[in-house]
Design a protein that fits this description.
- The chain has 9 helices and 7 strands; from the N terminus they run H-H-H-H-E-E-E-E-H-E-H-H-H-E-H-E.
- By secondary structure, the protein is α/β, with parallel strands linked by helices.
């Protein structure tokens, strides 16, 4: 019997060579979308201009395979997931979506939502607004998993000398980060957004619904403890 881990895997890597890659992405997105996507990786300003139009059709027409829960990977960039929908400003995502705006999805349209290292990139008030939008588009009994840098872990490490000061400063001031949450503050933000049942998990927690999708620490070569992991049910 298939599990979620069997269903949702990283999408296949494209073949080598520009022509082969174009065919690979054209088969998935269509030629115009694939071409604009490639140009957008070289000139981001062009993607910001044409991305919403050329990638919107893929987003609107996307459906999960029969019998598969509807998974939305918000702000996932190039970390696309087979059988799921990944949206971001990044042209490598399946479709252009600005998370600073209202999400272009109907109420209760997804069963599962992943925000891996996304929430810290927006100011706190916008983060709560984004969480409210997630709750709106999440189906009843749907599950959301959020990972974000862990202020508590950094604070303890700074006090006892186990966490490098440069790492803490980089987490605060690099990577476009706007707000770093303590564990308590993240739960409070989720409660403000309407998620009454939220609890901390840990990296690749086998008992968590979406823990198997935690990949940021491996992809960016950082200690898993740098992040906190929370799941909530609508």
């Amino acid at each position: 019997m298939s599990t979620l881990k069997d269903v949702f895997r990283p999408t296949d890597s494209p073949p080598a060579g520009l022509a082969a890659k174009f065919r690979h992405y054209s088969s998935r997105y269509g030629a115009v979308h694939a071409a604009a996507r490639y140009v957008g990786t070289k000139v981001p300003s062009i993607w910001r201009l044409v991305g919403p139009a050329v990638s919107g059709g893929y987003r609107r027409n996307w459906t999960a395979p029969a019998g598969v829960p509807r998974l939305l990977n918000l702000g996932g960039g190039g970390n696309t997931i087979q059988n799921g929908l990944t949206v971001d400003l990044d042209p490598r995502a399946d479709s252009y979506v600005d998370l600073a705006q209202s999400l272009p999805f109907a109420d209760a349209s997804f069963d599962l939502i992943l925000l891996e290292e996304v929430l810290e990139h927006v100011p706190k008030p916008e983060g709560v607004r984004l969480l409210r939008e997630c709750r709106r588009i999440l189906a009843p009994n749907g599950v959301i998993r959020i990972t974000t840098p862990d202020l508590d872990w950094m604070g303890v490490g700074a006090a006892d000398g186990t966490v490098d000061c440069d790492l803490i400063n980089s987490t605060f001031y690099d990577h476009g980060h706007r707000y770093i949450y303590s564990r308590r503050e993240l739960l409070r933000a989720m409660e403000q957004a309407g998620f009454a049942k939220a609890a901390h998990s840990f990296y690749r927690d086998p008992d968590a619904v979406l823990g198997f999708l935690d990949t940021h620490a491996a992809r960016f070569d950082h200690a898993p403890e740098l992040s906190q992991y929370v799941e909530a049910t609508r």
